[in-house]
Amino acid sequence: MNKCQLVCKDQQYWLKQASSQLSLANVWDRFSENNSIEHLTVSNILPYLTSMEADLAMLTWFDSLTIKGEIHLSVPNIDYFIQLWQSATWDNQNLLNADSNARKAFAGLWGGQHNCNPRNDNYQPELQDIYKSGYNQARLKLLLERAGFCEIQIHVEGAQINASAIKTMFRGERQISTHYDQIRPDHLNRYEFACKQLVTLPSNAQILDLACGIGYGTLMLAKHTGAKVTGVDIEQAAIAHAKQHFSNENTTFCCQDAKLLDIAANSQDAVVSFETIEHVDFDQQLLDVFFEVLKPGGQLICSTPNQDVMPFDPVKFEFHLKHYTNKELVDLLLTSGFRDVKLYAQHDPVSGRVVAGSDGCFTLAKAVKP
């Protein structure tokens, strides 16, 4: 088993393995191949990081783990030290006593602050033992969830919080969360747009949500339209997550390859598939499948990055195969047989609302099967 430990000693970060240790400039920089570590222990490092550094570090640690890989973290419990601070006696005698509540509370909230006296000869600002952030049970859980970890267990033991979590699926560009407030707004806005377009469907309508990921959009479609919605994704762990966290009586989830889609022809009133075709090498075939499963008069709503505004870069977009101009997207849809193609835009790549037009970072298309 490939086990690693991240520690902070004398304000230096170290990656320790069974027979070696490596000094790290930053714990948020990649220190191993992705999906290569089975067990990662992180000991009291998070308090030395800013909030943004901690977010980035957690993503790096997530990517380094194998599927079913575990992370174990320990951090000081800020709630404990706040209470200690409030109960402490603040006078010179207690400030000089390393065992007093005042000194313990100060160190627990802001670090030991060794080598912090500029009057001393050994004053080294770069080695100051200063905490930049604090964690209680709720904040640590949120940080792990935001990175994509699941099966989170947290144990509070007085001054210390110990947590463990498991990587259950590859993240890639996938949103991984159990709550809507942790899903990127641009992703939610696409599904909100689809809900508005499909709200007039009859109550017995059938909707296919292909490449549904963890299923948050599938559930949105089911709740807002009242239709029966089938969420399909190629990642088994994503489907398991969807069934656990984003399902109701009108949702069904299944793991399938879009090339081998087991959905009856002429059975769906609508197909929704966001940010999908740029990931596959069978774009025309995929649109042909959408056309086949739709009923006559059925609607397709899809989206993809706009090549004219957000040009394809294989380094920046490592999970994409290409981006599409609006003309290329429309031509693909028409070739598959779709008609009445209308384009919409998201201008902001992170929080963009969907508006009429075709000059956004992302293009959304709505088309009809005659």
TrEMBL record:
Superkingdom as given in the UniProt entry: Bacteria
GO molecular function: methyltransferase activity
SUPFAM superfamilies: S-adenosyl-L-methionine-dependent methyltransferases (SSF53335)
Any one GO biological process: methylation
EC number of the protein: 2.1.1.-
Methyltransferase domain span: 207-298
Keywords: Methyltransferase, Transferase
Keyword RNA-binding recorded: no
Name of the top EC class for this enzyme: transferase
InterPro entries registered for this protein in UniProt: Methyltransf_25, SAM-dependent_MTases_sf
Protein name as catalogued: Putative S-adenosylmethionine-dependent methyltransferase/MSMEI_2290
Organism from which the protein derives: Paraglaciecola mesophila
Lineage of the species this protein comes from: Bacteria, Pseudomonadati, Pseudomonadota, Gammaproteobacteria, Alteromonadales
